[in-house]
Structures are given as C-alpha cells and as structure tokens.
C-alpha cells in the first residue's frame, strides 16, 4: 500500500542514523582528547625554564588516530587541543591554589593546542594512503609530522612570548625523540593490527569449517536423494508397464489400483524433486573452488576430534599425507573420509588410534583409513557394503540412520574409484582402502 509520507519517513530514518553516528564519533573524539590530556602529564621538559614538554600525550594521540581511522582527524585535533589547554590551565590553578591567573596560564599552554591541531591536519593528509606504507616508511612519515608539529608549537610559543625559537638549538634531541616515539607507536599499532587480523582469520576459518561441514553433509544427502529418485523413476516405469499389461488383460479393478499406485509414486518423485531443489539452494559453492588433499584430511580429523571427545573416548588421530594437490572434488572426498573416520571413532570402545594416509601409486591416489577398534567379524566382511547393512543399533533395537558403507561405496564409484576392506595391516583391526584415478581428483589435470 502506498504511503504518501514514505520519503519523509525515510528522511527521518537516515537523519536518525547520521545523528547517532555523529554522536558516537563525538564521544570517541572526547575520549581521545581526555586520554591524551592525562597521558601528557607523564612528561619531561627538555629545555630549562620552558613549559615545552615531551610526554606520552603525543604517543597516545598518535596511537588513537592510527586505531580510529574513521574519526574526522581535523575535528579530533581541535577538540584534543582545546581539551589539553583547559586541562593544563585548570591543573595550574589547582596546583597554585588560585595564585596563577586563568588568562596567564591559558597563554602559557596555548602553544600545546597548536601542536595537536597541526599534528591532526598533517595526519589527515596521509590518512588514505598509510595502509599501503611499509611500517618503516610509515614511521618515517610520522617522525616528520611530529617534528613539524613540534616546530609549530615552538614557533607559536616564541610569537606569544616574543622569545627566540629554540628549535634549531635542540634539533638533534627533538629529532631523536620524534623518531623513537613514532616507531614505538607504529610497533604497537602493528601488534594490535596483527592481533585483529588473527581474530578475523580465526572467525573466517571457523565460518569456513562450518560451511564445509554443512556442504559435506548436504552433498551426502543430495547424493542419496538423487539415487532414490533414480530408483523411483524405475519403479514408476515398471509400475506403468504392469498397469498396461493388466489393463490389456481385462482386469480393470486391478489395473485401476496399479494406476493409482503409479500416480502416487509419481507424486513422491515430484516431492523429492522439490526437496532436491531446496537442498541445492543451500549449497555455498562460492566460498572455495578447490581444496588441497591434506586440508580435506585435516578437516575430517578435526571434526572427529570433537566427536570422539563428545563420546568420552581417548583417540589418537594420525595422518600420513605423502601426496598433496588441489582437488575440485573435495566435497565427495570429504564426505567419504569423514564418514569412514567417524565409523572408526565408533568402533573404538574407550581408547585407540586412527590413521588416515594418502599416497600415489602409478596413476592412482590411494587413501587409507585404519583403526584399532573392535574390528569387523568374518561373517560381516562380505556384507558391509550391502545396502541397508549395519551393526549399529540403539538401546531400543532400532538400526542407525547414518550414511552407511553402501553409500560411501556409491560415492567412491561415482568418482570412478573403488573401496575395499583390508584386514592384514599391522597394528590395525580394520583398514578401508580407497583407490581413485589421480587425474579424476587433481584439479587442472
């Protein structure tokens, strides 16, 4: 429904957002100013008889500007300069118990305000560029800005008090201080930045692992659903053929029943197609176009570390990756390896070890998943890949609803590979061996 005042409402909304942002920036600028004023009290006075000081206020102000790049620097410098001026003037009044006049004290510290204003203006000129600077180059620029700001402060002081500019006499001292202070702050800034990058990287890694785990599970579900749809298609065709034969034989009542069953099966197929379309939409295919074989193994092990801990088992996971390359078939590979490793975790009663290894043999890549769990009995060895076979039952006697080795085998077969059980690997009860052509897995092969 059209709202005649929608533009006005939108204007209020945008105006409110801007007001909130400005208010937040204003508070941050005041915070920077107060911190700078307090830090400035930790100082030394290099010139005898002068109020000119070298303190931590400059370092605190510089670090604040580096870390809070979103602030308007010029306004921040003006607010900081005024705050420092008022802070030092009030401090003089308190220390002298009112003996010093406000105007005289303000005149004494006025030049310090010019330092912060000049510093902020100079910083605003390189604000858009310094991310591209090497830390050494950035430190050099900041040293020059610090020297320039100190010169402006001393020049302002000489004009206010009609005295000689002492900057040239103490050039070496102020230069060394500016360089040390600038590079010290750059070091802190780089440490903070690196730590922030680590945090962002860890969050991105965690998100990627979650997406990879989700996509791996979805791949398995989509694979089974497609397989079921093929089976449904075959059943539908056979059912319709049976309907035609019985109808041709004149058995109308039976043929109608079979036709109804055929139609119901067709409805199931359409529902399955809709579910498949929904699952495919959930795939996040853009976050990684390929993964290295070692990364796939590492992720499968990492996922099952948590699974084994949840089950209260002490399992040592080992990997032996003798070949490593990028593969765009990482999702089916991960689905297979992850489920074989999780089966191995379940096969170990209390503690044990699991080995995942990969190597190339001729034109093939061999992947082994071995465990020293309870093993697989001789009578079950010939049936483990049969559809519906399981040895896992819950307390109520219901079979597990997991992936099943038959589906693992089907996924391996879809890659043109093979999987079999090896029982004579020393130190292990069960070893599953996957064999796939390297050219099928290797990206760009």
Write out key terms for the chains shown:
445 residues, alpha+beta, five-stranded mixed sheet, two-stranded antiparallel sheet, 9 strands, 11% strand, elongated
In short:
The chain has 445 residues and is of the alpha+beta class.
How would you describe this structure to a colleague?
The protein is of the alpha+beta class and 445 residues long. The chain has helices spanning 6-39, 56-67, 73-95, 102-125, 135-161, 171-248, 252-282, 293-310, 330-347, 378-381, 405-414, 438-441, and strands at 43-44, 54-55, 291-292, 314-321, 326-327, 351-361, 364-371, 418-422, 430-437. It has a five-stranded mixed sheet with strand order 4-6-7-9-8. A two-stranded antiparallel sheet has the order 1-2. Helix 1 (6-39) runs antiparallel to helix 2, helix 3 runs antiparallel to helix 4 (102-125) and helix 9 (330-347) packs antiparallel against helix 11. The longest helix has 78 residues, at 171-248.
Shape: elongated
Q: Please count the beta strands (DSSP E, at least 2 residues each).
A: 9
Please trace the helix and strand order, writing H or E for each element: HEEHHHHHHEHEEHEEHHEEH
Helix-strand makeup class: alpha+beta
Query: Can you summarize the main beta sheet?
Result: 5 strands, mixed
Q: Low-confidence stretches at least 5 residues in length (pLDDT < 50)?
A: 6-14, 47-52, 393-402
Question: Count the helices. How many?
Answer: 12
Q: Strand share of the residues?
A: 5-15%
How big is the Rg? 37 Å
Helix percent reads 55-70%
Strand order of the largest sheet: 4-6-7-9-8
Q: What is the overall pLDDT average?
A: 77
| Cα distance spanning the termini | 57 Å
């Amino acid at each position: 429904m059209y709202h005649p005042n929608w533009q006005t409402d939108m204007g209020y909304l945008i105006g409110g957002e801007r007001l909130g942002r400005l208010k937040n920036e204003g508070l941050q600028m005041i915070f920077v100013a107060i911190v700078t004023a307090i830090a400035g009290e930790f100082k030394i006075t290099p010139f005898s008889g002068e109020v000119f000081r070298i303190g931590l206020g400059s370092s605190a102000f510089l670090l604040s500007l580096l870390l809070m790049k979103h602030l308007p620097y010029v306004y921040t410098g003006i607010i900081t300069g005024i705050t420092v001026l008022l802070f030092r003037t009030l401090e003089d009044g308190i220390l002298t118990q009112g003996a010093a006049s406000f105007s005289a004290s303000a005149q004494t510290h006025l030049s310090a305000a010019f330092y912060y204003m000049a510093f902020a203006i100079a910083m605003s000129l390189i604000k858009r560029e310094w991310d591209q600077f090497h830390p050494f180059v950035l430190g050099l620029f900041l040293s020059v800005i610090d020297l320039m700001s100190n010169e402006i402060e001393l020049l302002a002081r000489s004009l206010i008090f009609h005295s000689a500019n002492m900057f040239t006499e103490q050039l070496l001292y102020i230069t060394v201080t500016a360089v040390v202070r600038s590079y010290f702050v750059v070091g802190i800034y780089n440490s903070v930045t690196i730590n922030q990058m680590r945090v962002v990287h860890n969050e991105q890694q965690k998100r990627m692992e979650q997406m990879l785990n989700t996509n791996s599970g979805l791949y398995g579900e989509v694979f089974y659903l497609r397989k079921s749809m093929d089976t449904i298609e075959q059943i539908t065709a056979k059912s319709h053929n049976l309907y035609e034969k019985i109808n041709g034989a004149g058995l109308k009542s039976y043929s109608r029943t079979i036709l109804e069953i055929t139609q119901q099966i067709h409805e199931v197929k359409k529902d399955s197609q809709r579910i498949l379309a929904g699952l495919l939409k959930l795939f996040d295919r853009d976050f990684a176009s390929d993964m290295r074989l070692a990364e796939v193994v590492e992720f499968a092990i990492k996922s099952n570390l948590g699974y084994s801990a949840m089950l209260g088992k002490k399992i040592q996971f080992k990997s032996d990756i003798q070949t490593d390359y990028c593969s765009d078939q990482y999702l089916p590979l991960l689905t297979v390896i992850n489920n074989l490793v999780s089966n191995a975790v379940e096969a170990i009663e209390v503690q044990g070890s699991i080995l995942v290894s990969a190597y190339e043999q001729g034109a093939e890549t061999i992947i082994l998943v071995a465990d020293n769990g309870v093993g697989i009995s001789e009578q079950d060895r010939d049936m483990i890949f049969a559809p519906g076979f399981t040895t896992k039952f819950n307390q109520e006697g219901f079979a597990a609803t997991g992936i099943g080795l038959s589906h693992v085998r089907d996924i391996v077969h879809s890659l043109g590979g093979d999987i079999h059980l090896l029982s004579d690997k020393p130190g292990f009860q069960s070893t599953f061996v996957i064999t796939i052509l390297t050219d099928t897995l290797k990206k760009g092969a």
